[in-house]
Specification:
The chain has 17 helices and ten strands. With about 450 residues, it is α/β, with parallel strands linked by helices. It has a four-stranded mixed β-sheet with strand order 5-6-4-7. It has a two-stranded parallel sheet with strand order 1-2. Strands 3-9 form a two-stranded antiparallel ribbon. Helices cover about 45% and strands about 10% of the residues.
């Protein structure tokens, strides 16, 4: 009996020793987990979208979410607040929000690590990215890549093929100038009696936004690169203003801010109140009331809702075959690695998974056009395959001079008033540009005086 008792005692000790060793090993593994701080909208969104995948793939890492939802509050979404947030919370992975100039400032002030070595060493499939994405990011990083986006957004020129066919008007084409678009729109304005069809329409369009867009597509600047002098009193700008004014006067363009003036001047427009009601509730294009529009992929949802049988297609943004300003391509977020992190390699492994081909395919199917997210790899497009979706990807971009923040607050209302006066024949285009040039320079000087104080 004693031998059996001793034998059982020895087995018990061995068993408990085994359990104790296992517990110690598990405790040691937990203790050895490295904590990577990931800047994300909030914990709930992270859990829903990525937690299961990341925790399964990287059990050796503990991912701590640094929620940035408070930054989305009014008055906080600016460069200063964002940098203060990063300095206070010290995330390893930084989510760059769509704040104008933020990404460039973070690069210039040394807050972000270049990712090129990680991309090369881990053979990340950057060559599958759309050139419009990688070229823009490298332009902002002076040749280096400091962030990768899960998606991007831009716009294209949509056109209703049925309306073009009905009037035997040639379709728009890639690389057109904005003047060419206005010429096509003018041909719809001359259609005669019948239900009104607007040649060109944009949501939230005003004379100023159309003028600004037309100038952008011609590569024109209205303030010099230093933001100190107006550059609008030129022959090139005079052509742009004349083209826009002529388009309004002809009825080729529809503008909610000029409804009454347009309806009074255009006898060819019938049942205009119904058109106004449609414009206020949804897109004129999506309801078949406009031949052309410029919009994001979100418009596809409206078309499917209001006119699912519409025979439509799209071409690239009118740019006269040249590059468009970089602000016409947007990133809802960019993921970067903080320069002060001690876990750069671990942070990259997480980024690599977040931006993997498989993850993008899943997101493209689940989100896609519903949330205005274009996949960065063209092969993962989940949009209607029979449409020219390549129009969103064929853009070339370039960085422009004067920063938006340097534009005087009073300048845009002045331009709105000048264009309204032009449409009312109260002054000429050359006189309007002279007034904008002179008063704009005064505003710029006043702004510099306030800053100096």
């Amino acid at each position: 009996m004693k031998k059996e008792y001793i034998f059982s005692f020895i087995l018990s000790i061995g068993f408990f020793s085994f359990l104790l060793a296992g517990c110690n090993r598990e405790e040691k593994e937990v203790q050895q987990q490295k904590v990577v701080k990931l800047m994300f909208l909030n914990e709930e969104t992270y859990r829903r979208e990525y937690a299961n995948v990341l925790e399964y793939k990287f059990p050796e890492l503990q991912i701590e979410i640094i929620p940035y939802s408070d930054l989305m509050q009014p008055g906080k979404l600016n460069i200063k607040s964002f940098i203060e947030f990063v300095l206070n919370h010290k995330p390893d992975i930084v989510s760059i929000l769509p704040i104008p100039g933020l990404f460039e400032t973070m690069i210039q002030e040394g807050y972000l690590l270049p990712l090129d070595q990680h991309i090369s060493r881990h053979r990340f499939d950057l060559d599958q990215y759309a050139p419009v994405v990688t070229n823009l990011l490298r332009d902002k990083g002076q040749g280096s890549l400091y962030g990768v986006p899960p998606s991007f957004s831009t716009s294209a020129l949509y056109f209703n093929k049925d309306l073009f066919d009905r009037l035997k008007i040639e379709y728009p084409r890639n690389g057109m100038s904005f003047k060419d678009v206005l010429y096509l729109a003018y041909r719809f304005a001359r259609q005669g009696d019948g239900e009104p069809i607007v040649g060109f329409y944009m949501k939230n369009m005003t004379p100023r936004t159309v003028w600004r867009y037309a100038g952008d597509m011609e590569g024109l600047q209205w303030i010099d690169a230093n933001g100190q002098k107006m550059t609008i009193q030129t022959a090139a700008w005079e052509k742009v203003f004349s083209n826009v004014v002529d388009a309004y006067r002809s009825g080729a363009m529809f503008d909610a801010s000029l409804l009454r003036a347009q309806s009074d001047q255009q006898e060819w427009i019938k049942n205009y109140e119904a058109v106004i009601a449609q414009a206020r509730s949804n897109s004129l294009f999506a309801t078949g009331k406009a031949a052309m529009t410029i919009d994001s992929p979100l418009l596809i949802n409206d078309i499917n809702r209001f006119e699912p049988g519409m025979n439509w297609d799209l071409v690239s943004l009118p740019s006269n075959g040249g590059a468009v300003p970089s602000n016409y391509v947007q990133f809802q977020t960019l993921h970067s690695i903080a320069s002060g992190t001690s876990l750069a390699e671990e942070s990259w492994t997480i980024l690599q998974l977040l931006h993997s081909d498989r993850m993008e395919k899943t997101n493209a199917i689940q989100n896609g056009v519903l949330f205005n997210k274009l996949p960065v790899r063209t092969k993962n497009i989940s949009f209607p395959q029979e449409k020219n979706i390549e129009a969103f990807y064929s853009l070339k971009t370039e960085e422009k001079g004067a920063a938006v923040a340097q534009i005087p607050a009073g300048l845009e209302p002045l331009i709105e008033q000048m264009i309204t006066d032009l449409l009312d024949d109260k002054l000429s285009v050359s006189d309007a540009l002279r007034v904008i040039q002179e008063q704009g320079n005064v505003m710029l000087l006043q702004d510099r005086g306030v800053q100096d104080e």
